[in-house]
TrEMBL record:
Stored PROSITE patterns: HTH_GNTR
Pfam families: FCD (PF07729), GntR (PF00392), SBP_bac_1 (PF01547)
InterPro entries per record: GntR_C, SBP, TF_FadR/GntR_C, Tscrpt_reg_HTH_GntR, WH-like_DNA-bd_sf, WH_DNA-bd_sf
UniProt-recorded name of the protein: ABC-type sugar transport system, periplasmic component
Organism: Wenxinia marina DSM 24838
Keywords: DNA-binding, Sugar transport, Transcription, Transcription regulation, Transport
Amino acid sequence: MRLPLTSETLEDHCYRELRQMILGGHLVSGEKLVQEDLAVRLGVSRTPLRSAIARLERENFIKLTTRGEAFVAEFGPRQIADVFEMRAVLEGLTCRLLAPTIERKHILYLRSLMASVKPAVEGDDRDVYRDADVEFHTYLTNLVTDHPLGRMLESLHLIMAMSLAQGLLRAPEETFGEHIQIIDALEAGDPDVAERAMIDHIRRTIAILRQRTDAGEPAPGLIPHFKTDPGRAEDAGIATMTKGGIDMTILRRTALAVVLGSTAAIAAGSATAQDAVEFWTMTYGDQLNWKGEVEALIDGFTEETGIEVRHEIVPWGSAFQTYLTVSQGGAAPDCADMYWLHSFSAIGGDQHGPMPLNEYRDEYFPTLEEDFYAGALQDVLWQDDFYGIPWRGDIRAFIYRTDFAEEAGIDGPPQTWDEIVEDAKALTVRDENGNVERWGFAYGTATNVVSWLLPYYWQAGGTMMTDDGQTATIDNEAMRTALTFMRDLMWEHQVVNPDSLEAGYDPQPLFVNGQLAMVGSAEQAWGVELDRDYPQLEGQWAMATSPAGPENSDSFSGAGYFGVLRGSDHVEECVQLIEYMSRDENMLRLAQAAGTVSTKPEVMASEFWSDRPWKIVVGEALQDAHTSQHPAPAWSAIATPEPGGILYDLMYDVIVLQEDMDASIAEAQERMQAELDRS
């Protein structure tokens, strides 16, 4: 947590903020620094600002002219390539050192990280993927900081910050597979292959930079220019050495910069004030509107209690990595908007991550069970402990085209699996040559194909694992029933597109354009999006609760919750904040700002959640909510929605390839158990 800055920390504050502006591209290469404007922006006088600029000039982030003007240093493709050459050597060495000893939990994290950005790869979302790329490389180098090479390897952090500040030089689809190869080599424990995989990965980018240099193209972005000054190097006791076109002084000076930067960070941390509660949330809907609404609620809380709260945003693109790091002992707020309680609690154990709040439950939340949907409470109760208040829901509902149903003589949505088959057959349309013009059914939306299987498995009476997360429980009749239903819809009844499980499949455009009649499990966001973006479809679609399977009508559900992090010095203040946020009127404001369903029946009965038929339905669906959480750190790896993921492979083999079901389930059970054992 941070405190108001004192005069002793102003220079460090300016230094860090300016360096981050440069590394983040907010101050661009060659830009003149207007000190008056920067002083206002940073809220300081020019004295600490000038000191910070002098430090950054010594580290070659900034260039000073003879007239005393300051400019952001320029760095061309050749110098960028040199930095990448250093990265290749040092990160290759990192992988060599890690391969024989890397722990399973680190492999799981890296695979989960890559799985989390697979949609960004497919959608060429370079901003999201860049964050994951930085995290991938930084995470690996963090694992070797205790090696005797010590500070030389630590220098990688600053080198990487510089070399990646420009953005991505290659498409995500190229580098994603290379990251997987590096993880595979590390998991295999092969130091030679791991080192070569990392070096080849980085040098493919170097080749592009060299081509740009040869072509005389400008630098792709900003990297500070490290000047070679033999006199200054000798004065500092650093030998100047060039090898292969790389000035090795850069490496040594960068290591020094890391040490100086770390010292500044420690000083700033030690001076941080302890009187403000630090509260993190993700962002929902319109970011500015969300931030404004949350901070307005915080202002009301502060006025009522006198407790100061500082709100920070965690981008969704980095939320998974952020909370996984928190659960492994990384920097944490006092309290936060979180998710996947079961997994993050299992990872953090009794040391890090989410903190049980049992002792505060009766005093602050005496009517918990009456106030919240039972399905939502599944996401804040784990192993008999209470962790906070579920404030938002993510419920899936059935959605169908009412206009097509009326044309086919169908009165209302299907109520059972058998009626899904019957209606889908009636709604599937083929031309005179047998080509499908409209599919009758889709299992679910495009968010995560593995999430399509879960509700059918639950509706058949199945559970994925035991309550303690130790034993896989998928080799059973419920799994056979669910997979048989899904496979028969595709091949026997021919009402589901055989390409459903392939990359790039998205049912929403098909639904909107009249090429798809029903979707079994659709996010509540579809209601918002159809209302907002497709007003011409008004009256032509509707949502409904999930049709019943053999055992129940369970719907896929997730919930975000407000909870406290272990290590906080402000536990009771956080509980008071959470209680304030959980009041009906405040929960309604949060739901309106976020565009997500509330976890409280009283809020869902409000006018806001009753003014559209689909809103009423998602409220009803919450009665059948089944948490998507599972009490095992390995769950994200088990449920990876891509080839190689255990449940994805099971679905693809049985549903699409129609391979032997018993053998496929037995193999998936064995693989899943192995993951649970390793984690």
